[in-house]
Amino acid sequence: MRSMAKKALIYKRIHPHVIRHTFTTTLLYKGADLKTVQALMGHSHIRTTERYLHSTDDRKVEAIWSLKIGNLTAALFDAFRKDYFLKSKLPRIKEKGYIASGND
C-alpha cells in the first residue's frame, strides 16, 4: 500500500481504513442512498454509516440554488447567507457565480 501511495504522489500515511473511509464518503457524496452504503460497508447500525455524511458550505448553497423556483430561491438564499457561518464564505460564493457582486 505504501508503494502505491508513493507512485500516486501521496505522501501522507495511507492505511486500509483511509481507503474504506474515502470509498464510503465518495459513495454518499455521489448520491448513493444511506441504506445501500450501510449494506456495502457491513454496518449493523445506520448511525455508523451516518458518521460518513459531511456537509460543506458549497453543498448547502448548491442544494438551495438547485431549487430554481424563481423568487423563492432568492429569498431562501438571502436567508441562508445571513447565517454567521456563511458570511466568511461570501467572496468564494461570489467567485463561483452564485450571487452577483453588488448583493451583499
What's the arrangement of secondary structure elements?
Layout: H1 2-7, H2 16-29, H3 34-41, H4 46-50, H5 57-65, H6 71-81, H7 84-87, H8 90-95
Features:
104 residues, mainly alpha, 2 domains, 61% helix, extended
Give a summary of the structure in a few sentences.
The protein is mostly helical. It is built from eight helices and no strands. The chain has helices at residues 2-7, 16-29, 34-41, 46-50, 57-65, 71-81, 84-87, 90-95.
Number of domains: 2
- Whole-number mean pLDDT: 75
Biggest beta-sheet profile: none
Helix content: 55-70%
- Figure out the total of helices: 8
Shape: extended
User: Structural class given helices, strands, pairing?
Assistant: mainly alpha
Order of helices and strands: HHHHHHHH
Approximate strand percentage: under 5%
* C-alpha-based Rg, rounded: 19 Å
Unreliable stretches (pLDDT < 50, length at least 5) are none
Number of strands: 0
Could you give the distance between the termini? 48 Å
